[in-house]
Amino acid sequence: MTRHDGLDVAGLQRRLAEFAQARGWEPYHTSKNLAVALSVEAAELVEIFQWLTPEESARVMDDEEKAHRVRDEVADVLAYLLQFCEVLGVDALSALSDKIDRNEARFPVK
Question: Which of 11, 78, 82, 106 is buried most, with the most CB atoms less than 10 Å from its CB?
Answer without folding.
Answer: 82
